[in-house]
Amino acid sequence: MHITHASFVTLPVADQDRALRFYRDVLGFEVTADLPMPPGRWLQVAPRGARTVFTLSGPGMGDFEPGSARGIMLVTTDVDADCARLTEAGAEVRGPDDHPWGRMASFRDPDGNGLMLLMEAHQ
After folding, report:
1. Tens of pLDDT, residues 5-15
2. CA–CA separation, 96 vs 119, rounded Å?
3. Quick one: which H or E segment has residue 16?
4. Contact criterion met (CB below 8 Å) for 69 and 116
5. Alpha carbons 67 and 108: distance in angstroms, whole number
6. pTM of the entire structure?
């Protein structure tokens, strides 16, 4: 096996423009691709400098149920500030809570996809 990294993670969404506003304007992700692609739109976002991107997969772009993604971990350097920003933007945030491996919180995007924030203990 010679796998080096994951290329993309699919986030099923009902409205790509709404999802884009959340991932770009709230989370601060960059748009890495936004192309027309039958039967929909190929839209990808990522944190600055990330190798793995997130495909905001809208209706008609596969057999995905909006809001069905779970357990996506995003690493941060300031979980408390990020939680405050998410709350200010209207997201429902759980935590942050301290764990032996770090400080964590969870939240959902506008479609209900479940994401987590982790500030690793050694930071």
Report:
1. 899 999 999 99
2. 10
3. helix 16-20
4. no
5. 8
6. 0.92
